[in-house]
Write a structure and sequence with these properties.
By secondary structure, the chain is α/β, with parallel strands linked by helices. About 40% of the residues lie in helices and about 15% in strands. Bound molecules: pyridoxal-5'-phosphate.
Length: about 375
């Protein structure tokens, strides 16, 4: 078949399956969809702080772009400073910044597990980890979601060094991983635990630093991923762990090596946000109250959500068309709520993914629940 005809056919099929995707800018709607949990992306004080950091940045040849990959011309002092800060903040020996969380997961899984090794992953892990695993020469197997017992049972199939990967807070369900149980299984079998903290950073933990928030938990992980596009309100991601790990990534991780480094503005925003994170008590208190209020009102109104205490709350509405229709209805009432359709989630578990923030008002949450009430 001619190429254009193939592309058109595939797109038509997407439309027929109720899964057409398009880019939308929902300017005036109330934000119940972004990952800006603490409002850092809209915080003008943080912008000023970032500008101050940028002013003191010691490289006048690089005030706009990074000029190259980090191994060629793209390395500059702010990188070293921010990586040191992040490593120490997360109780790790070393941190390495990637251009995004997607890149970091590709970068880790494509090069750290070796041929003959095994990756055991929670069935609900993020697409970026799946894509990293696809690039790996190791074998991979899924364990049942949040089921440490099933994970342990997979040892009979495991070969070589074994990597266990989970998200501390699941991006599409908002539930938490049984971290202590995963650690126990990994310790017992001498397996390497890898935790993606994308949706826990800023929402949980001592100093709002995520669920792995002390030295003993940190030491139990081989590697952790922190993304900056969510509660940090910026862009990029870091893998934290040992110096040996980050040295290896610098030498072998293609998504790290073969791309232009982040610009100084991005690093300054990350630094400003990290410095403020432990002080963001007001934001984290507001977020906590909003999560509690949302859950109470949902219960009162007998609207079922997935089991989650995090900022991510989901209402299952099976069927791409049905969930899409409901999202559009809520958007028409002024709420920015997006449908999560299959194949992003499993067929039959399509959902509305509602993200709560520190800056949502009580009235906005009450109005949203009233609007949902009319739809079910
Ligand atoms: C669990 C998880 N890991 C990684 C990523 C990728 O991060 P980024 O958006 O920085 O590419 C996401 C983004 O949605 C995520 O939810």
């Amino acid at each position: 078949m001619e190429l254009n005809a193939i592309l058109q056919y595939q797109l038509l099929k997407r439309k027929e399956e109720g899964n057409w995707r398009e880019l939308k800018y929902n300017k005036d709607l109330i934000d119940f969809s972004s990952n800006d949990y603490l409002g850092f992306a809209r915080n003008s004080n943080l912008k000023l702080k970032a500008q101050e950091i940028l002013k003191n940045h010691e490289d006048s040849n690089r005030i706009n772009g990074a000029t190259g990959s980090r191994l060629i011309s793209g390395q500059y002092p702010l990188y070293e400073k921010v990586e040191k800060y992040i490593a120490s903040f997360h109780h790790a020996e070393s941190a390495l910044i990637f251009n995004s969380g997607y890149n970091a997961n590709l970068g880790f899984f494509s090069c750290i597990p070796q041929k003959g090794d095994t990756i055991l992953f929670d069935r609900l892990i993020h697409a970026s980890i799946h894509d990293g695993i696809r690039l790996s020469k190791a074998q991979a197997m899924a364990f049942k979601h949040n089921n440490a017992k099933h994970l342990n049972e997979l040892k009979e199939y495991a070969t070589g060094n074994v990597f266990v990967v989970a998200e501390s807070i699941y991006s599409m369900d908002g539930d938490a991983a049984p971290i202590e149980e995963l650690i126990k299984v990994c310790k017992k079998n001498a397996w390497y635990l890898v935790i993606d903290e994308a949706h826990a950073l800023g929402v949980y933990g001592n100093k709002n630093g995520g669920l792995i928030d002390n030295k003993s938990l940190a030491d139990a992980c081989f590697a952790r991923l922190y993304t900056f596009g969510k509660a940090i309100g910026a862009h990029g991601a870091a893998i934290v762990g040992s110096k040996l790990l980050t040295d290896y990534l610098i030498n072998f991780s293609r998504p790290f090596i073969y791309t232009t480094a982040l610009p100084p503005e991005a690093l300054a925003s990350i630094q400003a946000a990290y410095q403020y994170l432990p002080l963001a008590n007001e934001e984290s208190e507001c977020l906590r109250k909003n999560i509690q209020l949302f859950k109470e009102l949902m219960l009162q109104n007998q609207i079922t959500t997935t089991e989650s205490n995090s900022a991510i709350q989901c209402m299952l509405i099976p069927g791409n068309e049905q969930v899409n229709r409901t999202a559009i209805q809520l958007q028409s009432k002024g709420f920015d709520i997006r449908a999560i359709r299959s194949p992003t989630v499993k067929k039959g578990s399509e959902r509305l993914r509602i993200c709560l923030h520190s800056f949502n008002s009580e009235e906005e949450i009450k109005n949203l629940i009233n609007a949902c009430n009319g739809l079910f």
